[in-house]
Design goal:
single chain; mainly beta; 6-stranded antiparallel beta sheet
Length: 245
């Protein structure tokens, strides 16, 4: 006879009722939690991109350098943020995201060709308006490049991040719920693992009791780790305790 399999909500209830001894580890942000797990593919705070725009016709993009922006529309008049350097800084390559394609140097990866690992309900298609993004942060490790893209939003929108990962010559879109490049971890055979997060409790997004964090390989199915988080205050899912794995 196979052992019984507990649903996530039931498993969370058992863990909450049986927590004794040393208190659970507490966090006030997901970056610190993901870093604490070790084996992170991308280290450090990342580098913020800037958004230059052409004047007429208007085209906006996110870039690590003025040179990359000029290459896209060489004859246009540009409005360039003062924070955007002529050449990329912090050791990053020339990176540009124009809403439909990610460019690294002279190479390009269209969103329509990306492996979308997000749940179906969270897939947003192959186009994003650069003006709809509040900020974009880039990381690099070897030939791997990752972009955190946060939307201009209100309400619960700060829980969702578009994570675009270039790894092993393939482009991936990762699940957005509490997603970040900082969460990606190395895996054997030059692979990576990423978190696919699910709310716990009957209230789900409106009043979650916690979060189930499943680390998956890029096939989107193979789980290599699981962590259970509890929200002491369901209205603040950014303050939590790690209660099991």
């Amino acid at each position: 006879m196979k052992p019984a399999t507990l649903a996530p909500v039931a498993l969370l209830s058992i863990l909450l009722s049986g927590t004794t001894g040393a208190g659970p580890v507490q966090f006030t942000g997901y970056d610190d939690f993901y870093r604490s797990l070790g084996g992170n593919l991308f280290l450090g705070p990342g580098t913020e991109l800037a958004m230059p725009c052409t004047e007429s016709p208007r085209h906006c993009l996110w870039a690590t350098s003025t040179i990359q922006a000029m290459r896209r529309h060489a004859d246009a008049q540009w409005t360039v943020p003062g924070s955007l350097a002529l050449e990329p800084t912090d050791g990053l390559p020339d990176v540009v995201f124009d809403g439909q394609t990610m460019f690294v140097g002279a190479r390009r990866w269209p969103l329509r060709s990306a492996v979308d690992l997000a749940p179906p309900a969270w897939r947003t298609g192959a186009s994003i308006r650069p003006e709809n993004l509040a900020d974009v942060t880039a990381w690099q490790h070897g030939t791997s490049v990752c972009l955190d893209m946060r939307y201009v939003s209100s309400g619960k929108g700060d829980r969702y991040t578009k994570v675009l990962l270039l790894h092993g010559e393939r482009l991936y879109l990762l699940p957005p719920l509490f997603g970040t490049c900082a969460a990606i971890r190395t895996a054997p055979h030059h692979r990576f693992s990423y978190p696919s997060n699910t709310y716990l409790g009957s209230g789900m997004e409106d009043s979650p009791r916690g979060l189930q964090v499943d680390y998956l390989l890029p096939d989107g199915r193979t789980r290599i780790a699981r962590y259970l988080l509890r929200f002491p205050d369901p209205d603040n899912p950014f303050a939590f305790e790690v209660i099991g794995e």
